[in-house]
């Protein structure tokens, strides 16, 4: 083909003819194939044979070198680990943490976690992650965050990492710990109201005012003595303002004494009527109402306990815990001349029904109630008198509102 072009050139000009110049470095694919005298090199471009593989300054048109960083691994900046994570303000359900924003690495986020066990790199993935951590602030400035929703009287461990994208995180910070506060124990509020019925019917009813206070609990202590018409048993129903109370625990000493505790969670503040109804038509029965505040409204009680006996001391061992309040209710079978029982040293008496305060029909019993601080070892509630008598006693621990 080149020979034909040369002949054509000579025919037209009748002079010496030359091959049009060809620019080295053109892609082989653009010219179809390299002209005679040129070679398609390994870079798919046309060169004179003497220039194939020659250095760039030999006149060969070399392609632009590729950017050396295009295919290289990006440089990862090591993020600074936090070393001063500390716990500060503590409540029954929250702990405030503080730390210093890192100086190096320019992090874009924090990952704060907690656990009831020590946190290590191995246990980091199983620790509870919090939500809503602040964005990293100015390097060297103080940061803080309040972790909420914690359980009272519980020790928690905390650790934090800084991050810059999902794949770039710092090493684990120092691990700090804190223990949430014990909530205040429930408290007795308001005066008690007590009424009796003696051989005149099967209903004891009276007006009672639930005092103001958060997380209220109403307790009714029902007692009964042996009687020709009715055995000493628990009432069939107890109501307050038309709402049914639930029987928590009872103790019945044969045919001589009975005591039972009934409760209503979250009673409405104000006055309503207490109505305790026994199944028999007449008997020596009584009911007493007491109010407490600051009681857990979901799980208000520990395990209740009951005991009966004959002697000068009524006693019951009540399981409890730190920050709880133990409440008891008891009944002694006495006559009017008998001395009043004394509560245990740690107990605060709330109800001691004395015969002269009522008519002669109440001579058969002493209705007793008290409370005492709870303990992890449990609390033994006692009532003591110098005279040996039949008795029945019940008790339970009230759990504090969280």
Description:
The protein is mostly beta strands and 402 residues long. The protein has 2 domains: 86-179, Immunoglobulins (Immunoglobulin-like, Sandwich), CATH 2.60.40; 187-398, no CATH class. The protein has one helix at 2-13, and strands at residues 39-40, 46-47, 86-90, 95-100, 109-115, 128-129, 142-147, 155-163, 176-179, 187-198, 203-210, 217-225, 237-240, 243-244, 246-253, 257-265, 270-277, 284-293, 305-318, 325-333, 342-343, 348-352, 365-373, 379-398. The strands form 6 sheets. Strands 19, 20, 21, 22, 23 and 24 form a 6-stranded antiparallel beta sheet that branches. The longest helix is centred in the first third of the chain and has 12 residues, at 2-13. 34% of the residues are buried. The model is unreliable at 1-19, 55-61 and 355-363 (pLDDT under 50).
Please outline what is shown here:
This protein is an all-beta fold and 402 residues long. The protein has 1 helix and 24 strands. It has 2 domains: 86-179, Immunoglobulins (Immunoglobulin-like, Sandwich), CATH 2.60.40; 187-398, no CATH class.
Classify the oligomer. single chain
- Percent range of helical residues: under 10%
Query: Span between N and C termini?
Result: 99 Å
The biggest beta sheet reads: 6 strands, antiparallel
Structural class: mainly beta
Number of spatially distinct domains: 2
Strand residue percentage: 35-45%
**Overall pLDDT, averaged?**
84
- The coarse overall form would be rod-shaped
Q: Write down the Rg.
A: 45 Å
How many extended strands?
Answer: 24
Total helix count? 1
- Give the low-confidence spans: 1-19, 55-61, 355-363
One letter per element, helices H and strands E, the order comes to HEEEEEEEEEEEEEEEEEEEEEEEE
């Amino acid at each position: 083909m080149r020979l034909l072009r040369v002949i054509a050139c000579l025919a037209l000009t009748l002079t010496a003819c030359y091959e049009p110049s060809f620019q080295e470095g053109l892609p082989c694919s653009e010219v179809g194939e390299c002209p005679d005298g040129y070679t398609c090199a390994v870079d798919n471009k046309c060169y004179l044979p003497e220039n194939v593989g020659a250095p760039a300054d030999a006149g060969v048109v070399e392609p632009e070198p590729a950017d050396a960083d295009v295919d290289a691994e990006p440089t990862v900046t090591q993020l600074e680990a936090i070393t001063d994570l500390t716990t500060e303000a503590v409540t029954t359900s929250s702990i405030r943490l503080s730390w210093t924003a890192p100086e190096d690495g320019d992090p874009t986020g924090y990952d704060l976690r907690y656990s009831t066990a020590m946190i290590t790199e191995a246990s980091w993935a199983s620790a509870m992650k919090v939500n809503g951590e602040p964005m990293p602030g100015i390097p060297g400035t103080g940061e803080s965050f309040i972790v909420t929703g914690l359980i009272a009287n519980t020790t928690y461990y905390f650790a934090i990492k800084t991050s810059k994208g999902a794949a770039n995180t710092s090493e684990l910070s120092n691990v700090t710990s804190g223990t949430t506060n014990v909530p205040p124990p429930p408290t007795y509020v308001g005066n008690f109201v007590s009424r009796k019925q003696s051989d005149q019917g099967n209903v004891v009813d009276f007006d009672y005012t639930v005092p103001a206070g958060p997380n209220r609990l109403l307790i009714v202590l029902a007692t009964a003595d042996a009687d020709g018409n009715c055995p000493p048993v628990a009432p069939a129903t107890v109501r307050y303002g038309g709402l049914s109370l639930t029987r928590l625990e009872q103790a019945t000493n044969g045919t001589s004494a009975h005591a039972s505790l009934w409760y209503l969670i979250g009673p409405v503040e104000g006055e309503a009527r207490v109505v305790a109804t026994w199944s028999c038509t007449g008997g020596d029965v009584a009911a007493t109402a007491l109010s407490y505040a600051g009681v857990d409204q979901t799980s208000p009680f520990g395990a209740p306990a009951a005991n009966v006996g004959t002697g000068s001391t009524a006693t019951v061992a009540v399981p409890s815990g730190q920050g709880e309040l133990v409440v008891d209710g008891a009944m002694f079978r006495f006559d009017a001349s008998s001395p009043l029982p004394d509560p245990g040293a740690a107990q605060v008496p709330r109800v001691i029904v004395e015969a002269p305060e009522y008519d002669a029909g109440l001579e058969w019993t002493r209705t007793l109630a008290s409370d005492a601080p709870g303990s992890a070892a449990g609390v033994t509630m006692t009532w003591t008198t110098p005279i040996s008598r039949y008795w029945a006693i019940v008790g339970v621990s009230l759990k504090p509102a969280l």
